[in-house]
Write a structure and sequence with these properties.
By secondary structure, the protein is α/β, with parallel strands linked by helices. The protein contains 8 helices and 22 strands. Helix 3 packs across helix 4. The longest helix is centred in the middle third of the chain and has 16 residues.
Length: 429
Amino acid sequence: MPTAIEFNNISKQYRLGLVSTRTLSHDLNRWWKTQVLRKEDPYLKIGEVNDRAQKRESDYVWALKDINLKVEQGEVLGIIGKNGAGKSTLLKILSKVTAPTTGTIKVNGRIASLLEVGTGFHPEMTGRENIYMNGAILGMTKKEIDRKLDEIVDFSGVERYIDTPVKRYSSGMTVRLGFAIAAHLEPEILVVDEVLAVGDAEFQKKAIGKMQDVSRGDGRTVLFVSHNMESIQNLCNNGILLGNGSIIKSGKIEDVVNYYISGNLAFAEDVNSINNIDKYRPKGTTKEVEFLYLKRVSNYRIDVNDPLIFKMGLKKNAKVKKIQLMALIDDIANGGNRVGMAFSEEILLPEHKNEFEVEFTIQHHNLTKSKYIMDFWIGIGDVTSTIKYYDMLYDTLTFEINTCNGKYINEWHNYWGQNCYTSVNVVLK
């Protein structure tokens, strides 16, 4: 297969909090060394890896470091990694939102990018006008866009507001229209950065299906960033794992995901609270109601019959009257498979109080011996299809089950299943 994208020694350096060096001496030194003496940029020789968990000694960090990668035409590449790993920076360089510090990228085809909510939209222009503007940027004629217009509007589900300025769109409507444009205007390369987390579940399924059609049916290339391992595995055939700006592992998506998940077993067992919420939150959430903090009340190690109890601080930022809380459980010791989901009833929010705490309990989880990790979502609606999401946190608190009725379980065989039922009554006749 021909190569669609080739990254050659791509690196990106930032000075924290500043554009360029933003000091006269550093700027003059850089100009003198690079432009006059034709030598290497002196500031490329310094800098730390972009590890937000470590105390920094230098003002310079490498968001990306020596990325070498080939993406074949028609390939669906999943890009995973923790927040701050360099995923978005890589896509921004590919989409020419920012320039690399070193290295080159060779691209064979037109690129349509969906990086953040509202990317590529002029807020004063209507949805219809933005469709034509984006098509023109991709090099399409008016007749070509005309043929796709009805399909784009229908897919986005914003027909009623298509002649309304996009500044009046909700974040979900903006993402719907942005994805519809990117997917239907026939770019050779489609770049999607976790913005599909915004909006309802129905549209997320629709968008995943469209990306599958684009790649399999049309032979177009897709680069997809997500924290949702299930979506990544369903859509992608190959993947890369980024960590601190470097490629840690590449190959078949199942192997990359399993490697990533096994590494997450290193989550500290004694951590029972999270206050730095942004580290776990994907981009693009509306935060009409948002998480402030998260605590595990139950112990790290529990019996199969013990409840899971969490406390979470919430903040209401809009006129939202009621919400539902969702907890999603992944088995990180066995491939990261999702093994449980729990949904609360509708919660009526206090009218005159914007910040409050709730306790979330899963009384009967029926999970067996293993290690697990939790996702938490805030939303409202039909949890099977059309729920609207306000906020979500991925890969948060962990817990372990290793006892059944107080007795330690040495090994749990896969063919036994995921549930452990201890209340069994046998009647002899």
